[in-house]
Amino acid sequence: MDKQVVGAEQELEATRTAELAERVIGNLQRVIHAPDETLQFSFLCLLAEGHLIIEDFPGVGKTSLAKALARSIDCAFSRLQFTPDLLPSDVTGVNVFNQRSNEFEFRPGPVFANILLVDEINRASPKTQAALLECMQERQVTVDGVSYLLPPPFMVMATQNPIEYEGTYPLPEAELDRFTMRIAIGYPPLAEEAKMLSVQATDQPLDRLESVASAEELMEAIDDTRRVFVEESINRYVVTLLRQTRSDSRLYLGASPRAGIALMRVAKARAIVSGRDYVEPDDVKTVAPTVLAHRLILAPEARSSGLDAEDLVRSVLERTPVPV
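The structure assignment produced for this chain is given below.
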């Protein structure tokens, strides 16, 4: 096929996906009073076929963001409130004996949805948390030796309270590494918060939110994102960033190869949402803190000095040469 024709098709795909992102993010803004970048990150995670963890204080709109995203793209939504007594079968589903047919039937659990909201993920036992690992990595559930595929698109959005740890089970590194991004919503500006009081005291904007895209459009956008071009120098740049975290004395554990794959996928998503069919270094730099920070383990000296993982990621970005 002619290179000009291929280039024109790729530009058309980028424009189409950028328009889709604008519609979805604009729809989210009607309900969630958060920085535009935060809302964009949640959609980038969806385009990158990733999973999102929202770590913030109670009452800032974590649950509303997940619901609004699901409604915006007309996808099946399911919610799980993680508690200490929750069982893995409550997540994945269970085989139930049918007396009429005299055989066992599989009854799907809440995980069989396009967007799964897991509220307070760190309140469930490690055994129940582990029930999500296969779902997140393999996009399937295995019950009694039989595997069931999850419907695409599939995304886990988990919430976590950063100030209350009594009665919680910290997420193991293997599970954190499967979350593509970690974001925080934060408190809204003064004017926005005052507007929320006047609007939501009499009405619930989320109840009136309508979809602005179909699941088929989203799957097309995901396919377009996969085809975004990445130059070899960008690949080397990402690998250099990963190796810098592994050799940093302030870090006990650096970024894994899975982190690099996630970083590249989200960078491709940002590129196409920006209307480009190729990745720039700025795409990598913009999304790196939200993709890498939660995967890193700080050394005791760094923690005691008041540093956090996002500061270290920005430090690594500053001292890593950018490809020209």
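Interim note for the steering committee: The longest helix spans residues 3-29. The longest strand covers residues 93-98.
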